[in-house]
Write a structure and sequence with these properties.
Rossmann fold; 2 domains; alpha/beta; 9-stranded mixed β-sheet; binds 6-O-phosphono-alpha-D-glucopyranose; 6-stranded parallel β-sheet; about 550 residues; 17 strands
């Protein structure tokens, strides 16, 4: 692949020094913060704390070890609100020591100031449960069956006016206030919950340096055309208040530029130069594919927690006569496309009945957002298909083994044992399972990857590529993966591993900081376009 150069630690340190000087700070703003505080169920109601979940928090949780960091987020729990009172006004009170102790325990060794913003229930529900999820999430993952949804009705407009907009203003105001004593703050805004925050920050701090990174897909402008100009234009203009808009892939960056060209009246879009001129400013649009921290992941993969799960799986494999494993690990979320994955297995077993004894499909599946009807319905549809395929067989003889994947250690244990890993989302911002599988797999796993995962831009060349809707093709790819000669598996994996090691989480962050530093100096951000490996994918004639 290789035109990108690996980025040593020193580069990042030097960039941070240049950007922040002695007293500057990075200011991250996101909906979910790095820690969730809770009141202990039993006993004295003391606060407890755990690291927040999800891709965003995992990516940014260690940032405070590398740079002075202020992190502004919404309070999600009663515990967060209690902690916020201590954290935000720095008062000394009875709970003070406890909150600081929890902070140090959960994210040790960080220069981290945490600011939790307590939005009212009325605002937060509309912001998070109506507008961001499911509306924006579904539009951007193209998950609506357009004949029925989305419905831009009074409830949705109300969620925008009385939820999304005020939540963005309040979080942006908190970020500006938190940066009041900071020279040179660099604002790093995260994800689809905050499309309007940059505009508010710019209004109050015209010279601020702002980068918004979006973790989820940016669909083509024809998706956005379904929703009214009164929503899509402020979303685009909100983002144009940044200096840099970062997307996961070059394809999403192109979509963003097209969307701005279509819907923002006075913007001039330079597609080749990847920038937009708007109201006297120039906004750069770049791709920063997110990744994992390889060493941290490998340490976790060798931990006791994972070893225990591995033993459980090994016992079961022994009982089943040591079958080979196809593995998937994801949330039960319609965009992940588990349904077609299981149907593809059924197709494969019909085609090659002897594989019934030689192979199992191990699926680590985490329930998520179960209160949203579409998720519950999808979960039922998946369970029905799995029940049909498994039929009346004894548990160990069943073709599909399901594990509750809220257990991350189980997901990693399964990926260690995989010979084929199926990652077939209908659309996905990036998909980190594909990258994790490459790093932790011990049986030279073959990656079967749909072209609509953001990760395909980097990985398709050495994965077996499939179109997400193609059940027949997915069955064939799994069959090919199982039959692939050892030498080819190893060669593909070696190249994939080298790529993921080089384009790791550090690389993701350093490219953003380098671009921000360039913008500060009035230069063009140097991040180049990445080669889209999907273009080279061959397919068999049908
Ligand atoms: C996933 C996505 C992130 C998103 C997060 C929200 O992890 O990859 O882009 O921010 O979900 O999850 P939450 O649980 O906070 O709704």
């Amino acid at each position: 692949m290789g035109h990108a150069v690996s980025v040593p630690d020193d580069t990042r340190r030097a960039l941070l020094r240049e950007l922040l000087g002695d007293t500057g700070r990075l200011v991250v703003v996101s909906n979910r913060g790095p820690i969730t505080f809770d009141r202990a169920d039993a006993g004295d109601g003391r606060l407890t704390a755990a690291r927040g979940s999800g891709g965003l928090v995992t990516a940014l949780a260690e940032l405070g070890r590398h740079a002075p960091l202020t992190w502004v987020a919404a309070s999600l729990t009663e515990g967060d609100r209690a902690a916020a009172r201590v954290l935000n006004d720095g008062r000394s009170g009875p709970g003070d020591a406890r909150v600081r102790e929890l902070l140090e325990e959960t994210l040790p060794g960080q220069d981290l100031r945490l600011v939790y913003v307590s939005l009212s229930d009325e605002v937060y529900d509309r912001h998070y449960r109506s507008f961001s999820n499911p509306f924006l999430w579904f539009v951007q993952h193209e998950m609506y069956a357009n004949a029925y949804a989305p419905m831009i009705d009074d409830t949705l407009i109300d969620a925008w006016r009385k939820g999304y907009r005020p939540a963005n203003v309040q979080l942006a105001d908190a970020a500006v206030d938190a940066a009041a004593d900071t020279t040179n703050p660099v604002f790093l805004l995260q994800d689809y919950h905050l499309y309007l925050a940059a505009a508010r920050i710019r209004e109050r701090l015209p010279d601020a340096t702002i980068l918004h990174f979006n973790h989820i897909p940016w669909p083509s402008e024809s998706q956005w055309r379904l929703i009214p100009q009164s929503l899509r234009r402020p979303i685009c203009e909100g983002l144009l208040a940044c200096d840099i808009v970062g997307l996961q892939t070059d394809r999403y960056a192109s979509h963003f530029l097209d969307t701005v060209a279509s819907f923002v009246r006075d913007a001039r879009v330079d597609r080749d130069g990847r920038n937009v001129a708007w109201r006297g400013r120039r906004i750069r649009v770049r791709a920063y594919p997110i990744s994992v921290d390889p060493d941290g992941l490998l340490r976790f993969a060798a931990s006791n927690a994972v070893e225990q799960r591995l033993e459980r799986l090994s016992d079961r494999l022994d009982r089943a006569g040591r079958p080979r494993l196809i593995v998937r690990a994801d949330r039960i979320e319609p965009s992940k496309n588990a349904l077609r994955g299981f149907l593809a297995l059924e197709t494969l077993l019909d085609r090659r009945p002897e594989l019934r004894h030689q192979v199992r499909f191990l699926a680590v599946q985490a329930p998520t957002r179960t209160e949203i009807a579409e998720y519950a319905e999808y979960g039922s549809a998946v369970r029905e298909v799995v029940a049909r395929i498994n039929g009346m067989a004894e548990p160990d003889e069943q073709p599909i083994w399901i594990y509750d994947g809220s257990d991350y250690a189980m997901a990693i244990a399964a990926l260690r044992l995989a010979e084929v890993v199926l990652v077939n989302p209908l659309v996905d911002g990036m998909n980190l399972v594909a990258k994790e599988a490459i790093l932790v797999g011990e049986r030279d796993p073959v990656l079967v990857l749909s072209e609509t995962a953001g990760a395909a831009e980097q990985l398709a060349a050495d994965a077996l590529s499939i179109a997400a809707a193609d059940v027949v093709g997915t069955a064939t790819a799994m069959e090919r993966g199982l039959a692939m000669p050892a030498e080819e598996r190893r060669a593909r994996l070696r190249r994939l591993r080298a790529l993921v090691r080089q384009q790791d989480l550090d690389w993701w962050l350093t490219r953003q900081l380098r671009d921000v530093a360039a913008v500060r100096r009035g230069l063009v951000p140097p991040s180049r376009r990445l080669r889209d490996t999907v273009r080279g994918v061959e397919s068999e004639a049908v």
